[in-house]
Amino acid sequence: MKTDIILAGVGGQGILSIAAVIGAAALKEGLYMKQSEVHGMSQRGGDVRSNLRLSDRPVASDLIPLGEADLIISLEPMESLRYLPYLREEGCVVTNIRPVVNIPNYPPMERITEELLKLPRCVLPDVEALAREAGSPRAANVVILGASVPFIGIAYEKIAEGIRSIFGRKGEEVVASNLKALKAGYEAAQTVRP
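Above: the chain sequence. Below: its structure as tokens.
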């Protein structure tokens, strides 16, 4: 088993929390893991990226080479396009359809969606709407994680355990709301374009 994941978004969206949950789940599965992070101007809405490499064998490097990522998980649609050169031909993109318009010449969302739909495998949920429906508007990052679970290579239950592990210190209410957001994203991935 080997899964190379690029997590992308802008500062404040919870990209590093997603990496922590997947990492906790991977360790519970007995997998090897390497992670690297690029924070950019994260406090000001700049790009944030994390490389996450999971394997049942030791991982030599935390950097994912061009054309080798199995999965891009993105909370910002234009950021998902930024990392397409890293995606394997049969890789998958799971990205939010709601942009964070943080630059004056942000392209029209229709153009971004058009590019994403050219990919053989993409999932395009509206994670903010799903998070609100799940009763936790702040858990959009966990919704996108839920939508990504079918492509990570770790069982849903192990990802849920990762949420319990990472968010447990914040109390049972926070854990419960994040588990509900995870389930909402997971169910959405079954209904949007596979």
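Helices lie at 15-28, 77-82, 109-116, 127-133, 140-152, 156-167, 172-189.
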